[in-house]
Amino acid sequence: MLTLYRQLFLGKRLYLGLAVVALVFFLSFWFWIVYPIALFLACMLTALFLVDLLSVFGKKAGIQGSRILPEKFSNSDANEVGISISNGYRFAVRLFVLDEIPEQFQKRDFGYFTDLAPGESRETHYSLTPKLRGEYRFGSLHLFAHGPLGLVARRYSFDDRQTVKVYPSFLQMRKYEFLAFNAMKREYGLKKLRKFGHSREFEQIKPYVVGDDLRHLNWKAAAKTGKPMTNHFQEEKAQPVYSIIDLGRVMKMPFDGLSLLDYAINSSLVFSNIALKNGDKAGLATFSDQIGPTCEAHHRPTQIKTIMELLYNIQTGFPESDFGKLYSWVRKKVGQKSLLMIYTNFEHAGAMRRQLPFLRALAKHHVVLVVFFENHLLEEFSEQPASSLSGIVEKTIAAKFIYDKRLIAKELKRHGIQTILCAPQSLSIQTINKYLEIKAKGLI
């Protein structure tokens, strides 16, 4: 009896029928002839209720269900969750699927309806887009089977308590892995860049043709063959490239549900995968007031998995980032000339100038690429018309912040430091383009 009480739910049609019966009984207070009609309706409703109740509770296990989760979720992407259900009743049922999704999504009314024919099995799907990395815990799966008359519903609960880990956006990584080296990449903003051959890894000797660099003429080979010959060089491979992520408080700023740190993590994962596919060695480092988790640059097959596991756990803090500690770590641990892609954020020129001596010192030994972010909210605000004096002042201040960002980028370039200033949403494309440009110019 207790089980029946816990599983029994009344349908909307029953409440509607009770309202009609109550209304007829109410009218019979003044019109006595209506009373027998009200009594008849009450008896009919009771009988139909019992029929519907026996229909859904007459079978011990009329509905079976389970949740199907992927091995891991991709942060900031739509991830599909499957619900497998089967109908063991001899009649078609209308099911309300109520899944207890993780608390991080803050949805308390998540559910949907579906219909199942007698004996039918089906797999339905819905998608979830996480905004935080970490472990997500699912609760029970509840299926509400409505009777053929729709007066009662029986709740079937399946204790499918499951945990899934949310990793940096590996779906973006796979997407750009496909797009970076095929004809479709121009649709997505990727550029094909000509390689100029500045490296010195010898490939072969070929006859001279118009346009070859005269500095590469091979006079000994020319003397033997009797015609001009030139040395040809191929692009150097296995160059170290490091994604260096600032974990200070400047990376806590949110944009569209994600923090700047999450955008940097997604971009560094995409960039590291492209570098590995391009034959280079990818590494990772993090820092704030101390050096955080690091991963030495390698080209081993498991390197991208190692980087992903390291990125899964890192979080921002509130301290001021110490670029001096970063400089000391790079000088001790990174011997070969490398590409250092530093993800940080400068909101004003003063913050950049405090770190400029360390960036210039790094640029003497490595190719330094500083990645920082445009504030697209300020961009949108500055384009809105001002209707008052205070609005004009606010727009002027917003324009000043936007102008300062561009001045910071120019100042860094003036000191020989590569820069990327872009909106967080386009960060992955911009980093890939810049990496391909640096490789094409033979800077590393």
CA distance, first residue to last residue = 76 Å
CATH C-level class of the largest domain is Alpha Beta
Radius of gyration: 33 Å
Annotated CATH architecture of the largest domain: 3-Layer(aba) Sandwich
CATH superfamily of the largest domain: von Willebrand factor, type A domain
Structural class: alpha/beta
Domain DUF58: 205-370
Protein name: Cell division protein DivIC (FtsB), stabilizes FtsL against RasP cleavage
Keywords: Cell cycle, Cell division, Membrane, Transmembrane, Transmembrane helix
Transmembrane segments: 14-33
Task: Outline the structure in words.
By secondary structure, this protein is α/β, with parallel strands linked by helices. The protein folds into three domains: 167 residues, Immunoglobulins (Immunoglobulin-like); 230 residues, Rossmann fold (3-Layer(aba) Sandwich); 34 residues, no CATH class. Helix content is 37%, strand content 27%. The chain has twelve helices and 21 strands. Strands 18-17-14-19-20-21 form a six-stranded mixed β-sheet, sandwiched between helices. Strands 1-10-9-5-6 form a five-stranded antiparallel β-sheet. Helix 2 packs antiparallel against helix 3 and helix 4 packs across helix 6. It is elongated, with a radius of gyration of 33 Å. The chain starts with a helix and ends with a helix. About 1% of the residues have low confidence.
What's the structural blueprint in terms of helices and strands?
Layout: H1 2-7, E1 8-10, H2 12-27, H3 35-57, E2 63-68, E3 72-74, E4 79-87, E5 93-99, E6 112-116, E7 121-128, E8 134-138, E9 141-146, E10 152-158, E11 162-167, H4 170-179, E12 201-207, H5 219-225, E13 229-234, E14 240-246, E15 254-255, E16 258-259, H6 260-277, E17 281-287, E18 291-298, H7 303-313, H8 323-333, E19 339-343, H9 349-363, E20 367-373, H10 376-383, H11 389-414, E21 418-422, H12 427-440
Parallel strand pairs: 3-11, 14-17, 14-19, 19-20, 20-21
Antiparallel strand pairs: 1-10, 2-4, 4-7, 5-6, 5-9, 8-11, 9-10, 12-13, 15-16, 17-18
Helix pairs in contact: 2-3, 4-6, 6-7, 6-12, 8-9, 10-11
